[in-house]
Design a protein that fits this description.
The chain has helices at residues 24-35, 66-70, 78-88, 95-114, 176-182, 188-208, 216-230, 282-288, 308-315, 373-383, 398-404, 417-421, 431-437, 442-458, 470-475, 551-569; strands at residues 14-20, 40-43, 59-61, 119-121, 140-143, 146-147, 213-214, 234-236, 239-247, 250-258, 261-273, 298-299, 328-336, 343-346, 356-359, 391-397, 426-428, 494-506, 517-519, 525-531, 583-586. By secondary structure, it is an alpha+beta fold. Strands 1, 2, 8, 9, 10, 11, 19, 20 and 21 form a nine-stranded mixed beta sheet that branches. Strand 19 and strand 20 (525-531) form a beta hairpin. The model is unreliable at 573-581 (pLDDT under 50).
Length: 587
């Protein structure tokens, strides 16, 4: 059922700023620009606002952020810069990295003080790696839980949490919230907490048709959406942008189809591309993705993210980076069958839990399962013989599946039978029986599990040192000792879920400068065109140094771009109402 937007008045023919896309990157740009007194239009091609951000964990990597500083965690500017240099292998980083590290804390302060967005700290969350300059915490923040009822009617056009990783449409936050759900059958306190959450959710479904207990990326987008509405940003859904217009070498507006009706809208200062990259654009993936990622790609991003921003920018001469270390933010994904086609489940949590391992089609392990999702997939790609499609199996014993779940197959008290009938969860009465059912060599799998069990009982993974890095350790179960991530697979039956090549989004994007301006193939700024979020090429050259390195730069550059546009607004500009013929490129 199509939801109508609350009354915002009449859609104008001209705004100071047009933002294409409504994820955290686009909305942060819009909110800051509106705060600066600019008129702003956000165009979203789907019915709902929020993009990939609304399905994300809502974490931002912001070194030296105010929440860490208030907790007494102080570090010099050079510390995170050293870490980035170590990760990139480059002693002369992109100028955008310096802008990001400088402006990130300022951005967090602005949104804390001037908008509906509040943050919680990630002061105990370490960087992914122990490269020179790494930190054991203090560089992460996330959106605080948000009461969706404060959005009024706008809550109906906020993208809902991804169904397969929510509980009947209710998001569950990392940290204590998730811990209570895992412990609901083990602790009276946790059981009461969960009962209260589910009870409130049931009332929400009856009254609103969706959850209003918003957490993670859903809370982030909701707070930004509320702030945009409060600041008078015009928000338009069902708006498919098809062309950028240029006049005198400057981008001056867009062609857009709104509810099937074509319209031309001018931008006095500029157009900001925030359309979410190209996670569902097979043509560009075939061009930019290396052969090792396989012929098929299953991104967990919304299927509406089809590379529109990159395609339109490229048509007017913008450079699309094709030289990154990794053009995508790789993630293990499993395919959940549904009537509408497979839903892509991102495996971000359970891989590191005790009693779960990953094996190749040959029955052997290939990496520490507790490494980051990006590193896990890089290891899978490296271990897959040339010409074969990358895939592996996540395997758990009965105890682990009942405790942690395995992908879409939820833990106790949810029965495993429904997932088995759907063909998603494979079950074997013995390790050898499971191996036969998933067509993995029986002897190899039995030997792998025997070796792993021996190491797990000693608390030391001799093959891949799983659980021994700070990031590995925090991903496990702190109550499981001596190694939070290791426990033997002993209790039958045994279960397996197939993992395929996927991503959380893309890194290759529009080349930009330190002000977020799009660059041409000659390296010159394209006047009036900006890129942010996954439409902007990765600051870290396709490396993934820590959780939140997508949303952190996305919101920071949204903040930076808005300030650049404000500065331009006080400078003399061409009269965009002129009837002089404009050039445009149609998507």
């Amino acid at each position: 059922m199509t939801q109508h937007l609350p009354n915002q008045g009449v859609l104008e023919d001209q705004y100071d700023v047009i933002v294409v896309g409504s994820g955290a990157a686009g909305l942060s740009t819009a909110v800051r620009a509106a705060y600066q007194g600019l008129s702003v239009l956000v165009l979203e091609k789907t019915e709902v606002f929020g993009g990939t951000s609304a399905w994300s964990g809502g974490w931002l990597w912001i070194p030296r952020n105010p929440l860490a500083q208030r907790a007494g965690i102080q570090e010099p500017f050079d510390a995170p810069l050293t870490y980035v240099n170590s990760e990139m292998g480059d002693s002369c980083p992109d100028d955008r990295v310096l802008s990001f590290l400088e402006k990130g804390p300022e951005m967090v302060s602005f949104f804390e003080q001037e908008t509906a967005l509040r943050f919680i700290d990630g002061n105990g969350i370490p960087d992914f790696h122990t490269s020179n300059g790494h930190a054991l915490g203090g560089r992460s923040v996330a959106a605080a839980p948000f009461d969706g009822r404060t959005l009024g009617d706008w809550k109906h056009v906020l993208r809902k949490p991804l169904s397969v990783i929510s509980l009947w449409g209710m998001g569950i936050a990392s940290g204590q919230d998730l811990k209570h759900f895992f412990n609901a059958t083990r602790s009276v306190r946790s059981a009461l907490y969960v009962a209260k959450r589910i009870g409130r959710h049931a009332l929400d479904l009856l009254r609103y048709g969706r959850s209003t207990q918003l957490v993670n990326g859903n809370a982030l987008v909701a707070a930004l959406l509320k702030s945009a509405v409060d600041r008078g940003v015009y928000l338009q859904n069902h708006a498919k942008v098809s062309a950028l217009h240029q006049q005198g070498g400057s981008v001056t507006g867009v062609d857009v189809t709104i509810h099937g009706q074509p319209k031309k809208i001018r931008a006095r200062l500029g157009v900001v591309m925030a359309a979410g990259g190209f996670p569902h654009d097979p043509k560009r993936q075939n061009k930019l993705f290396p052969q090792r990622v396989g012929r098929q790609h299953f991104s967990a991003a919304p299927k509406s993210n089809t590379g529109d921003g990159l395609n339109m920018a490229e048509l007017i001469g913008a450079k699309i980076r094709d030289d990154l270390d990794n053009p995508g933010a790789w993630s293990p994904v499993s395919l959940v069958p549904s009537k509408q086609g497979n839903i892509h489940f991102p495996h971000l949590i359970e891989r590191a839990k005790p009693g779960i391992i990953a094996v190749l089609p040959n029955g052997k392990r290939f990496t520490s399962e507790a490494d980051s999702y990006h590193d896990f997939m890089k290891a899978l790609y490296a271990a897959t013989p040339a010409g074969e499609e990358p895939h592996c199996w996540l395997i758990a014993d009965h105890k682990a599946q009942r405790r942690w779940g395995l992908g879409w197959s939820r833990p106790f008290p949810f029965p495993t039978s429904v997932y088995e009938r759907k063909g998603y969860l494979h079950r074997g009465t013995t390790v050898e029986d499971l191996a036969r059912k998933i067509r993995v060599p029986e002897t190899a799998l039995a030997q792998t599990i025997k070796r792993f069990n021996r190491d797990a009982q000693l608390g030391h993974d001799k093959e891949f040192a799983r659980g021994e890095s700070p990031y590995n350790a925090i991903q496990g179960d702190p109550d499981n000792q001596p190694n939070s991530s290791l426990a033997p697979l002993e209790q039958a039956p045994f279960y397996a879920v197939r993992i395929v090549a996927g991503s959380l989004g893309t890194f290759a994007g529009i080349a930009t400068n330190a002000q977020g301006q799009a660059l041409s193939i000659t390296g010159d700024p394209i006047s009036g065109l900006f890129a942010v979020g996954n439409d902007m090429s990765s600051l870290f050259e396709g490396n993934y140094p820590s959780g939140g390195i997508t949303l952190g730069p996305a919101m920071t550059f949204g903040y930076i771009i808005a300030d650049v546009l404000k500065q331009q607004s006080v400078q003399p500009t061409a009269d965009l109402s002129s009837s002089e013929e404009e050039n445009h490129a149609v998507l």
